[in-house]
Write a structure and sequence with these properties.
mainly alpha, 16 helices, 0% strand, globular
Length: 409
């Protein structure tokens, strides 16, 4: 595909690649800000399934036109977030398989896959824990308080009536409304306990601004590396486009291990900002090492790609999952769980802008030499670390006040 574009567009092909990548990522970034508001106001069953089905349809069209405890949250999210890297690997392998034969199938096949998975989600996704008999801690507590109050008045019949009424009102059925959540959530919103917050209010939550800007640069590095790595490998070695794409998947293999490691270390220490800064600090020299020595041999290239993936994708995965969940449930919100989607949208949306900017800059800078692209990525990593410095200082100050903060289990 690269050679065909070069024959059609000449020396501007590299810039065209960057513009195409950024057009997609800018659109994604804009949609991330809106998705938080939509997700809070519709059933997740319809939101996710319809989103994936529509993604599959439009991806196909492009081709044919040519719930866990907080103590383990980081580890669980780290494992869950591996789906990103696995999807990148499968997508790259599919594209590599068809790139020299029928490149349109690189869009048709993923479009069919994601559309099929979206349809399965529509059929089987359960978007409320009450549907399958898993009640939040507040509900048993509510029942207990109601029962105690009624027993004080000695009215056993009223107790049974209240239990039945609470059970009826708090247990949704499989007939999930398309434009509303369960009745219990509506009851909370009427009393202000679950009112969605604005973007401005969300920015005042401690750590949201810092992590959002940090993710801007972290995602810039990750997506630039992911989008341009096959072309860099092909241009700096004797490998063809298929083998170059296959080799580039090792970056996402490292990303799986990095996401899990970052989540586990965050659970162990409770110092998410420090873990991110530490991994970013190691990522900078590793990027330079890959640029200098990655072409010496296949074994060195494989090793460095995996290591780069660990330390580049680790902070990105941690911020978009565990950190977003923590910030969305900050104590300043007073239990307002509906802020989670807005906070996640702000953090990931800001990061997605960086993901869009990175490939665009790489397309422009690569014309002056690939080493300048790596210098850009290293500078972005340094800026990401600087943005976290205040949070890291606060974490260490908190650690000094409470020496038992690190959780060793």
């Amino acid at each position: 595909m690269d050679m065909r574009l070069r024959r059609s567009y000449g020396p501007d092909a590299t810039k065209l690649f960057g513009m195409l990548d950024s057009a997609f990522l800018f659109t994604y970034a804009i949609a991330m800000f809106a998705s938080g508001f939509v997700a809070e106001r519709v059933s997740l069953r319809y939101f996710l399934s319809m989103g994936m089905i529509l993604t599959g349809i439009f991806t196909y069209m492009f081709g044919i036109v040519r719930w866990f405890g907080k103590s383990k949250r980081g580890l669980i999210f780290g494992i869950w977030n591996s789906h990103t890297s696995i999807g990148n690997i499968l997508g790259t392998l599919i594209a590599a398989h068809y790139v020299e034969s029928d490149w349109a199938m690189s869009f048709v096949v993923p479009g069919i896959v994601i559309g099929a998975i979206g349809f399965l989600l529509f059929l089987f996704l359960v978007d409320q824990p009450e549907i399958v008999g898993c009640y939040p801690d507040s509900m048993p507590h509510e029942r207990r308080v109601t029962n105690d109050s009624d027993e004080e008045h000695g009215d056993e019949e009223q107790v049974r009536h209240n239990d039945a009424e609470i059970s009826y009102r708090s247990t949704p059925t499989e007939r999930t409304p398309i434009l509303t959540r369960s009745q219990s959530q509506n009851h909370q919103r009427e009393h202000g306990a679950g009112r969605p917050i604005s973007l401005i209010d969300a920015l005042y939550i401690p750590g949201v601004a810092e992590f959002s800007l940090c993710l801007f640069f972290t995602k810039l590095v990750s997506y630039t590396f992911m989008y341009w790595l096959p072309l860099y490998i092909q241009s700096s070695s004797t490998l063809g486009p298929t083998l170059s794409a296959d080799l580039s998947t090792l970056f996402d293999v490292g990303g799986i291990f990095g996401a899990i490691a970052a989540g586990y270390l965050s659970d162990l220490t409770g110092m998410s900002a420090t873990i991110c800064m530490g991994m970013l600090f190691i990522a900078s020299p590793i990027l330079l090492m890959y640029q200098q020595y990655g072409t010496l041999s296949m074994s060195i290239s494989v090793l460095l790609l995996i290591v780069v993936g660990i330390f580049v994708n680790g902070p990105y995965a941690l911020i978009t999952t565990s950190v977003s969940a923590e910030r969305g449930q900050d104590s300043s919100l007073e239990g307002n769980a509906n802020a989670l989607a807005t906070v996640t949208a702000i953090i990931d949306g800001t990061g997605s802008i960086g993901a869009a900017v990175g490939p665009l800059l790489a397309g422009l800078i690569s014309t002056t030499g690939w080493q300048n692209v790596f210098y850009m990525l290293i500078i972005a990593d340094i800026l990401a670390m600087l943005l976290l410095s205040r949070l890291v200082v606060k974490e260490f100050a908190s650690l000094r006040r409470s020496p038992t903060r690190i959780r060793i289990e």
